[in-house]
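Figure caption, in words: inputs first, then the predicted bound structure.
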Amino acid sequence: MNIFGWTKEQLAEALKDHGIPRFRADQIIRWMYQRGAVSFDAMDNLPKSLRTQLPQHFSIDRPKVVSRLHSADGATIKLLYEFADGQTAETVLMRHPYGNSVCVSTQAGCRMGCAFCASTLHGLQRNLTVGEIAAQAIGIADFLRQEGARVDTIVVMGSGEPLENYDNVMAALRLLHEEYTIGLSYRGVTLSTSGIVPGIERLAEEGIPISLSISLHAPTDALRNEIMPVNRMYPLADVLRAARAYAERTKRRVTYEYILIRDLNDSVREAEQLAKLLRRQLASVNLIPINPVAERNLFRPSKETIRRFQKALEERHITATLRREMGTDIQAACGQLRNRLMEAGL
Ligand code: SAH
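Bound structure (S-adenosyl-L-homocysteine present):
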C-alpha cells in the first residue's frame, strides 16, 4: 500500500492494525512530507526492527521527474512528472516577487475539449490521485527548501478540470494545508475551472477561503459554445450566477480568465459584451494572450489589439490585468510539454 498522499490520521489508523504506536505516524509523516524520504530505511529515528517491518506492508511511491526545463530568466521551472502507470502530468514553479507559486495538474489529459488548449488534444487518460496531486507541490517544496524558500501559493491551473476530480483535488489541498506537510494557506490557493456549475456550488459550501477563477474566454453563448463545449451543458448565465454566489458566500473576489485569440474574440465589440456581462460584480478580468498551439491554428492578437481590448474594459469600469507571461520559452502553455513528449513516443 502506497502511503504517499495519506493524512497523519489515516497512517496512524493503518499502523494501529499492525500494533505500531501512534507517535510513529508523526515521525514517518514528517520524513515523507518534509524531508523527502522515499524509503523507511532512511528514517533514522525509527528502530531498526520497525524499519524492516514497515516495507512489508507499506511503500512510499512518489512520481518521478522525467523532464525539467528552466526558463532563460530562471523565474520559471517546468517539471514533467511520471506516475507509476506511466501517465504523465506537468507542474510549473513560478517565482514571483511576492512569492513562489506552483501550478499543479489534476488529471492526466482532459476531456473538456476546449479549442485552444493543448491538454485536451489526446483526451482524458485518468484522474490523478490525492498523492499524485499533492506530490507535485511537495516535490517543489523539497527543491525550494534547499535554498531556504517555500511554496507560498498554489494555482490549480495545470492540465485537467479540477472540478471533475473534485474529491481528490479537495483532499490534496487539505493535505497540503496541514502543518506536517507544507502548511499551505487556503488564501494562497486559486482554483481555475472551465465552469462546472455543480462543482462551483459545492466548493462554495466547503467553508475554505480559496479563490475561484473562471475560464470565460468568450462573452456570448454562441461563441463560447464554439470554443468551449462545456458551455452547452452549463451556459454563461448559469456559470456567472454560480460564480457570483461563490463570491458572496466566501467573500473572495472571482477572477475571469479571458484568452485573447486573434480575430476570434479580440474585438472591441466583444470587450463591450464582456463588460456588460460582468457589470455590478466583485470581479476582475485576467487577459491572457493565447500561447499559440500549433495543432490548433490559433494565433495571438497584435499588441495594439490587446491594448484596445483592455482599454475598452477599463473604460467600462472592469478591472483588467494583462497576465505576465512566464515560461513561454519552455512550453509552459497547458499540456504543451506533455504533448511534445507523447508525440516523440516518450
Ligand atoms: N480546466 C481548468 C484549469 C486548467 S486550464 C480551466 O479550464 O480553467 C488553466 C488556464 O489556462 C485556463 O484559463 C485555460 O483556459 C488556460 N489556457 C489553456 N490553453 C491555453 C493557451 N493555449 N494559451 C493560454 N492560456 C491557455
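Residues 112, 116-117, 157, 161, 192-194, 215, 257, 259, 288, 290-291, 293, 333-334 surround S-adenosyl-L-homocysteine (CB under 6 Å).
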